[in-house]
Amino acid sequence: MREKIVAGNWKMNKNRTEAKALVSELLKEFKHKPAPGVTVVVAPPMPFTGEVVDQTAGTSVQVGAQNCHQSESGAYTGEVAAEMLKSIGVQYVILGHSERRTYYGETDAFVAAKIDRALEHDLVPIYCCGELLEERKAGRHFEVIEAQLKAALYHLHPTEMAKVVIAYEPVWAIGTGETATPEQAQEVHAFIRQKIADQYGRELAEGCAILYGGSCKPSNAQSLFLQPDVDGGLIGGASLKAADFAAIAHSF
Length: 252
Ligand code: 13P
Fold this sequence. Notes:
By secondary structure, this protein is an alpha/beta fold. The protein has helices at residues 16-32, 49-56, 82-87, 98-104, 108-120, 133-137, 141-153, 158-161, 182-200, 202-207, 218-225, 242-249; strands at residues 4-9, 38-43, 61-65, 92-95, 124-129, 165-168, 210-212, 232-235. Strands 7-6-5-4-3-2-1-8 form an eight-stranded parallel beta sheet.
């Protein structure tokens, strides 16, 4: 059976005190009511990553980063290398998020190199793809997503690809309150899985976790997670409240 994952992308939210409190509340939620068979990941803002790794040590909660640089090391002011993340105990890294593509000009080629660095340092990349509203309206979403998959992933060796988690995040659903319907999500997730199967074979594709992201919350998580090709969620806003995030992790 495929891995089920619920990952919280806190984006640029919470100060140090708030971050600590959120993790404490989350740990209480999962201690009180574990989510067996679900991998729970939190991706706090970069300055708190190490503390969150320490706070969650020995628990079922894993830690991710929201980004890493595409180079190994060097003169890149303000950036963070995959090796640094690994050295403090981070396990996942979100790459290719639409906010990074939009605001920081990250191209597919950048993201492909970031995925390479992450894999070299044994971090699990959570690769985000998804179409803009105008692309969806023009009926171009499959074409856009296929191009994103090709550009960022198809150069990987099958042993590398087997470690990648994919997140389908339709840009029009991120932070808008507008969620893809379960049918829309399933349609795209099945398409992504088919493309991975075409490239790497059915067995690898069947093992690939494909998460949905975009206004996922306790009230809609279950209907999304019931879809056969939806293996969990990448959660933004609702990951900032422990009870909501835990409720989503309990929605399988
Ligand atoms: P929201 O859940 O706030 O829509 O954000 C989704 C997202 O971008 C997760 O990476």
